[in-house]
Amino acid sequence: xxxxxxxxxxxxRASTGSSPMKRDxxxxxxxxLSPANLPSSLAAAAVVxxxxxxxxxxxxxxxxxxxxxxxxxxxxxxxxxTDDVRVHTHNSRISxxxxxxxCFTLIISVFSVVNRLNSPYLCKKDGITLHxxxxxxxxxxxxxPYSATTSWKPCAERRVGVFSDLPAENxxxxxxxxxxxxxxxxxxxxxxxxxxxxxxxxxxxILPVLKQDQIWKDQTxxxxxxxxxxxxxxxxxxxxxxxxxxxxxxxKSELFTSIKRTVKNIPKYAPAQFYIDNVLPRxxxxxxxxxxxxxxxxxxxxxxxEINRLRCRVNYHALKFLPEIEQMADQLVSxxxxxxxxxxxxxxxxxxxxxxMVGLSFCDFVGTRVEKAxxxxxxxxxxxxxxxxxSHLWALALQKRKEGRxxxxxxxxxxxxxxxxxxxxxxxxVASGQVYGGQNRMAPLRNMFPNLxxxxxxxxxxxxxxxxxxxTSLAALDFLVCLKSDVFVMTHGGNFAKxxxxxxxxxxxRLKSIKPDKGLMxxxxxxPYMGWASFVEDAVVTHQTxxxxxxxxxxxxDIWENPLTPCMCRA
Length: 571
What we know:
Elements lengths: L1 H13 L5 H11 L9 H9 L1 H27 L4 H37 L7 E2 L2 E2 L21 E3 L20 E6 L3 H18 L2 E3 L2 E2 L11 H4 L2 H7 L6 E2 L9 H6 L4 E2 L8 H15 L1 E4 L13 H14 L4 H15 L8 E5 L4 H7 L7 H14 L1 H4 L5 H10 L7 H11 L6 E5 L6 H11 L3 E2 L1 H4 L2 H8 L2 H14 L2 E4 L4 H13 L4 E3 L3 H8 L6 H11 L21 H4 E3 L1
């Protein structure tokens, strides 16, 4: 076949004008196999087979024509028809693969679009009501895992049977007197610090005065809220405490007003050595001194560990509310647990969204133009130096929300709790002042969790009348109910929340105390492409470690929120 293709091509190049028939005749005539050139013995046979030869010649001629045609095609198109079939098969496979890839991409795109349309803040909205999908309840929904809560135990209680070397009242270095300023919880911290400072300087502590708060306008005395006898007796081996200013000091008003009797230059978070070097000499000289202001005037990691342990002893053991307050709080807890036919766990929610808190935060919140204008006027009146001309407030508000420094709105709290797995039937006790925006602002939370009540809804008017004369007493009821709840949820920082979380840690890390990651919440709730499933996963995973579990302390840590190292011991 190759020889035939080669000879044919040579013949075509040598005589392009000759026909195939003539070329075959010439070739046959010159061939040694022609009848004329055969021996006589074979001639007859050649004649006899002439007809067969004619047939073979025609077949050979046809085969030659076909091969010549194929040879010419091959010279014009340097591939074979077999190759074309293989290429076609290969291309079909590539097309099939591309088609499958496109289909797979379309499926993913459709799924992504559905997720994006189902954003957390777009949970089926019906007016001011939010309907979010139900989430499966987790095993640790109402308490921390047992295995993570058994390694620490409280150890700041009073030492029993230990000899006390505390000097008599008239043998100490002198007397100190403080004004406990602010609300109930700030006053509580000031009292704990006052006992610690008295111990540092070996001074006698005069029972602190609860200074009238400028916001609450409350004139509660120490004995109106705390059990004085228990307070003095429990600390009798640590610090000398007297109920009143000594009788030999006749001009008591001087202690409140005279600069000569006041130490005013105490820095915030001062170390123990500062009191020894700067305050103690003046106490020895004057015998009785007033310390003010006294808000956060003692540090944490710059004082001896036994002093921090003493502060915990005051906070968790010595400071007890009056029996009537404790009894009323126990009734509220019992009513919360028995609101349904069966005993049920309940959640305490510290909702910090009062007008003062909203204004002080300088954050931007959802509202009408009228509401925003009124809030701007309120901020200008209350905080003129921070407000200035108001031009910088929008950028400040965005930055604070991004950093998680804004209070969570009731609607945001509702979405967060639903994402964590708390069902519609959850019993919630709300510890809060008057919420800014009233019932309209509370509607999303109340509609998503209808079993939401306050102490006013759990009691009769007559039951609370005895506590209304002191606003601090009402705050004490909220404090105790939150302390004894199954789950505590804070929505913004402050002394109340950190004292509750620290106290619950001290009582046992099994009690769940949720501290929201407001930075994550702000980012997720503000992302129009965040799907509900992704939001749920983020909320659950992130808050697994923000539920009051044991945490190692760090420099400048807050002992009131995390009493682990100085006040708790390895179990």
